[in-house]
Backbone:
């Protein structure tokens, strides 16, 4: 006799049981036998190919004899260090194991069933999952035919009954952003109670765009509630260590959010590594220059091949393709050649292919394979 065991879906809230699967950028488990690990080129998750500061590696080695000890759950040292760097009160900072963990905490804590969240289309798809889990709807504002986003359309969307604006700047996957005058208009159009969740995971790379706005300054001047999400995963090259932070508009907001999170969520080694990474700004600057230089070179190649791409302030370039099937076919073709990129759904039935900027030789290899496929 077989034992009848309850369907696990019945044990979860309907919103959770019906969640779609999130597609991550890398699929190493699908590597075929003929592809060795050495041949593999990871251009699918927007990592920094140069790796972290040598100081980070040294600190990690030194931390090995402390792994039996609990870390400092208050994150006081890194909060003070970052507070000084950013010129803000450290009490407004919140840390977790990656900025996506903070976004998760935010959506769990702030969204109510039936709430509206405004975002760009396409954008970081995880917002759709986290919002659906909370019973909230995402209103997406798509880009125009010329691959730009129109601020007036975003203003229209935010001026309605909106609990949260989830604005990724530079946007993932397109790298787009609103320049200062446009961003000011958006903030002015919003209800004063609407929370701006500004996902600035790629903000360090935007230094090569002179018109990139100081979004925090604009939100502060307007008195709008906000949290800016930042990460050590991208420019600081610590994706494997798992640490991100949030800058909240006031200390009380950060305190409330901390209450909803687990207490020991960042390891001691990770905290030490992040502090060392923040301290080595020269290493960061070198990486940013190398990536920006390569981005311009790749963009020129794309222009000469007539390839359509978005204006990106991130460490990646995003191609626009007529259909999602085409995007996924190119992604699969690249992967057959050992190159991981990320194809996904774009506006309507369109597709996009996001390619992380690698080292020069890696980019040459990517360009050769891509031009044969496109
Ligand atoms: C826009 C955006 N936000 C957040 C994250 C997650 O970053 P973390 O590694 O800090 O969780 C990513 C990672 O790809 C991202 O693209």
Residues:
């Amino acid at each position: 006799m077989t034992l009848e065991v309850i369907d696990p879906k019945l044990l979860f809230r309907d919103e959770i049981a019906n969640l779609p699967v999130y597609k991550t950028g890398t699929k190493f488990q699908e590597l075929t036998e003929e592809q060795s690990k050495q041949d593999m080129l990871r251009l699918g998750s927007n990592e920094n190919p140069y790796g972290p500061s040598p100081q980070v590696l040294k600190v990690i080695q030194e931390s090995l004899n402390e792994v039996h000890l609990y870390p400092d759950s208050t994150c006081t040292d890194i909060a003070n260090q970052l507070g000084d760097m950013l010129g803000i009160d450290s009490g407004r900072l919140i840390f977790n194991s990656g900025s996506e963990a903070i976004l998760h905490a935010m959506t769990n804590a702030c969204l109510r069933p039936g709430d509206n969240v405004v975002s760009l289309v396409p954008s970081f798809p995880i917002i759709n999952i986290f919002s659906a889990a909370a019973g909230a709807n995402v209103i997406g504002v798509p880009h125009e035919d010329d691959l730009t986003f129109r601020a007036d359309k975003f203003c229209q969307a935010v001026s309605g009954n909106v609990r949260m604006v989830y604005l990724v700047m530079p946007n993932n996957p397109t790298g787009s952003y609103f320049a200062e005058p446009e961003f000011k208009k958006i903030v002015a159009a919003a209800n004063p109670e609407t929370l701006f969740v500004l996902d600035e995971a790629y903000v360090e790379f935007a230094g090569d765009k002179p018109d990139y706005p100081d979004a925090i300054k604009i939100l502060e001047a307007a008195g709008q509630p906000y949290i800016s999400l930042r990460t050590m995963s991208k420019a600081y090259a610590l994706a494997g260590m798992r640490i991100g932070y949030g800058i909240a508009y006031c200390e009380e907001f950060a305190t409330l959010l901390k209450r909803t999170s687990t207490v020991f969520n960042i390891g001691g080694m990770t905290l030490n590594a992040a502090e060392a990474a923040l301290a080595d700004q020269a290493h960061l600057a070198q990486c940013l220059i190398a990536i920006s230089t390569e981005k311009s070179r790749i963009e020129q190649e794309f222009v000469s091949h007539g390839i359509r791409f978005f204006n990106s302030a991130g460490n990646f370039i995003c191609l626009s393709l007529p259909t999602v099937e085409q995007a996924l076919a190119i992604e699969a073709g690249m992967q057959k050649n050992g190159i991981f990129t990320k194809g996904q759904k774009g506006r309507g039935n369109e597709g996009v292919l996001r390619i992380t900027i690698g080292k020069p030789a890696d980019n040459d290899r990517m360009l050769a394979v891509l031009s044969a496929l496109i």
Remarks:
- The domain at 54-279 is CATH 3.40.640.10 (Aspartate Aminotransferase; domain 2).
